[in-house]
Amino acid sequence: MNVLVIGGGGAIGYWSARSLEAAGHHPVLYDLGFDTAEALGGAPMTKVQGDAADLQRLLDVAATHRIERIVHLAMIIDAESAPIMASRVAVQGLSAALETARARGIPRVVFASAKSAYGATFGGHRAPTYSPATEDTPRTPVGVYGAAKLLCEEIGRAYQARHGVSFVAFRFASTYGLGKDTGRHGSLSLGSLMVEGAVRGEPVRLPKGGDQRQDWVYYKDIGQAVVRACEAGDLRHQTFNIGSGIAASFAEFAACVRAEVAGADVQIGPGMNPFGTDYDAYWVLDIRRAREVLRYQPAYGTLALGIADYVREYRTRLEASRGR
Ligand SMILES: NC(=O)c1ccc[n+]([C@@H]2O[C@H](COP(=O)([O-])OP(=O)(O)OC[C@H]3O[C@@H](n4cnc5c(N)ncnc54)[C@H](O)[C@@H]3O)[C@@H](O)[C@H]2O)c1
Q: What does the alpha-carbon distance between residue 4 and residue 91 come to, in Å, rounded to a whole number?
């Protein structure tokens, strides 16, 4: 099927598109720019430049490319620094996607929400128990980013109820993988610093936070979830946690990098909260609903598997760029 991937120029867009291709579908990447997708390379994909909130453009693209599903991934990741722009991309962007679906008879819109919809961890969800959040765990977002995601989930729900457009929202755990090293993700890319620094043979020193555990999800598993949501028939749920369901620490991440890259000099100091945030948002997600309803089955469900693949992907590109 033809799938319009809005925000397809970004990291998750790239890997979702590759997963869609591998499953026999035809992704059409739609974005303001394609810097990440182009840096990640590979066989050319169909790309259309446009604004997520431009309804007329989306209507035209949907007709031209005979779009059958829409996946909305566009967002300003540093929403707290650009709240008006982020709200516009999220809320107006999703509304435009839903309107396009309604007008063009596209049966399903898949939306990238986030663990940030839950806000700060509380009670048994915090260390040391890390009790996994289910989709029904109370949502009390802390910033504009999480609040915009939650509002989008509600808009999607309303469209499904009112207009019959099937809506799926994915609450992603903490993501990692190739493509997360861009300026847009900034300091959220500790995993990329460790993996890519090690492969380049550089020492990596992170001062603190090694004991902090969280749920990590690899980009290719997100790609699988996107494929499942596009392919699924009628669904009895609209919201799905997408993660690994496992609590693993930043020190374990560093240890996996050392195990995978011979001679890697990657160290992270002890303690919690490596990002130094003023609230705790290190969630573990219960993924049973996605497993049961979507048949989502993480292929990289442990850090060892995901990091091994990430190292392979990064090495391939590094060697190509060095002309070997
Ligand atoms: N990376 C994570 O850790 C994470 C975790 C949870 C949820 N998410 C969500 O997943 C989605 C994809 O994230 P990502 O990691 O690929 O981020 P990304 O920044 O790599 O990709 C987002 C893309 O949206 C595009 N975009 C922004 N404004 C736009 C506009 N007006 N019109 C069209 N495109 C626009 C950007 O150009 C970018 O290519 C986002 O919605 C994000 O909030 C990401």
A: 18
- Which pLDDT score, from 0 to 100, does residue 284 have? 98
What is the pTM (predicted TM-score) of this model?
0.97
Helix residue ranges, H only, 171-301: 190-199, 219-231, 250-260, 288-289
On the CB side of 75, CA atoms within 13 Å amount to 23
Residues near ligand 1 (Cβ within 6 A): 7, 9-13, 31-33, 36, 51-53, 73-77, 89, 112, 114, 172, 174-175, 184
Domain hosting residue 137, numbered range = 2-176+216-244+282-301
Residue minimizing CA distance to atom 4 of ligand 1: 175
> Which CATH number fits the domain that encloses residue 234?
3.40.50.720
pLDDT at 322 over 90: no
> What is the predicted pLDDT for the residue at 257?
98
**186 — pLDDT class (breaks 50, 70, 90):** low
- Please report the pLDDT score of residue 311 as a whole number: 98
